């Protein structure tokens, strides 16, 4: 089911409120890289994010190597070909609260 995409004003606000995140994929996603002490810390973070994602039914695209975790948020169901939605804002806020 399609969900509304964020307007450019909403995206500007999102980036202002969450300066650790950067726009990616020509404005269709946001991304943040986390660096932890070791793999165990990184995996613990990923486990907590996974529970958030399940609770919100909104899932990250992510890459992990050892203590680094790269998180990208986009909404596959947004607009015609995907994009940023309020779901991404909500999940980014929850992830920031964990970090
Ligand atoms: N996660 N990032 C992301 N984007 C989605 O559109 C999405 C999701 N998780 C589940 C989900 N959509 C559900 O609406 C199912 O339709 C897949």
Automatic annotation (TrEMBL):
Signal peptide positions (record): none
Keyword tags: Lyase
GO molecular function, one term: 4-alpha-hydroxytetrahydrobiopterin dehydratase activity
Gene3D superfamilies membership: Transcriptional coactivator/pterin dehydratase
Group of enzyme by EC: lyase
Pfam families, per database record: Pterin_4a
Enzyme Commission code(s) on record: 4.2.1.96
Reaction(s) catalysed (UniProt annotation): (4aS,6R)-4a-hydroxy-L-erythro-5,6,7,8-tetrahydrobiopterin = (6R)-L-erythro-6,7-dihydrobiopterin + H2O
GO biological process, one term: tetrahydrobiopterin biosynthetic process
Family the UniProt entry places it in: Belongs to the pterin-4-alpha-carbinolamine dehydratase family.
HAMAP family to which the protein is assigned, alphabetical: Pterin_4_alpha
The protein, known as: Putative pterin-4-alpha-carbinolamine dehydratase
Organism: Erythrobacter ramosus
């Amino acid at each position: 089911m399609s969900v509304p995409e964020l307007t450019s004003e909403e995206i500007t606000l999102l980036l202002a409120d969450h300066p650790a995140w950067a726009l990616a994929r020509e404005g269709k996603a946001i991304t943040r890289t986390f660096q932890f002490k070791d793999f165990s810390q990184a995996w613990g973070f990923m486990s907590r994010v996974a529970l958030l994602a399940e609770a919100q039914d909104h899932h990250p695209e992510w890459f992990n190597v050892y203590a680094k975790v790269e998180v990208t948020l986009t909404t596959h169901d947004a607009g015609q070909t995907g994009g940023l939605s309020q779901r991404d804002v909500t999940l980014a806020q929850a992830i920031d609260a964990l970090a």
